[in-house]
Amino acid sequence: MDLNLEFLIIISFIIFVSALVHGTIGFGFPMLATPLLAMVTDIKTAILYIAIPTLFINLISIYSEGNFFEAVKKFYPLALMGMIGSAVGTQILIYSNSEFFKLLLAFSIFSYLFIQKFKIHITWIEKKKRLSIVVFGLLAGIVGGLTNVMGSILIIYSLESKHSKKDIIQSTNLCFLFGKIIQIILFTMHGSFNEELLIVSFSTLIVVVIAMIIGLNIKDKIPQEIYKKVIKLVLFLMASFLVYQTI
């Protein structure tokens, strides 16, 4: 799509809404922005448009919860696994179509919600913490590299690990951050970025700042239990949207 006022308005609106949701619940920006942008362009281009805003949002989200370096120290093993997986997924995305992987992602979300509904717990996540970090980190990274949506898998891991709201926000955003860094490096090496993409990405940062400020103010007023219910609702809605968009 050519760079014009209409497209700038569309992408700014999508980024504002997605960043507002992300600021409010601590995740959701790429999960919302990618499929919405993919409706007016292809998925690879959509990922490229929001690459820089995503990095910015991840940093804000981690920092807003406090103890930035403690969060890095605590969750860097998961983030490193996510980075490795993201490198694999991005390489596949560069050379192939990832529509099929959206259905796999939606299926994984619905499966988790089914497990939660009937109180079936994935007990091995807590019992085998190192293995779960490797499995969920790599899986989230690969899916994130292919679809730009790794949040659902990381949230499954975080909820089953009984992480606090702060831990969920910091761990998922750190993984996003590491995964996005390697993704940007690989896209740059492949020559995927151009002047138009960079102009659009940087021009939307002011929209991101405004939306995040509003969202963060809302987040502080959400109790822990309501927060987890909101997470599950968002997961269901996004899984349904991914299926709808693919078929």
TrEMBL record:
Transmembrane parts of this sequence: 7-33, 45-63, 75-94, 100-119, 131-157, 197-218
Keyword Cell wall biogenesis/degradation: no
GO cellular component: plasma membrane
Keyword set, alphabetical order: Cell membrane, Membrane, Transmembrane, Transmembrane helix, Transport
Organism (species): Arcobacter cloacae
Family, similarity comment: Belongs to the 4-toluene sulfonate uptake permease (TSUP) (TC 2.A.102) family.
Membrane topology: Multi-pass membrane protein
Protein name stated in the entry: Probable membrane transporter protein
Coiled-coil boundaries: none
Compartments in which it is found: Cell membrane
One Pfam family named in its UniProt record: TauE
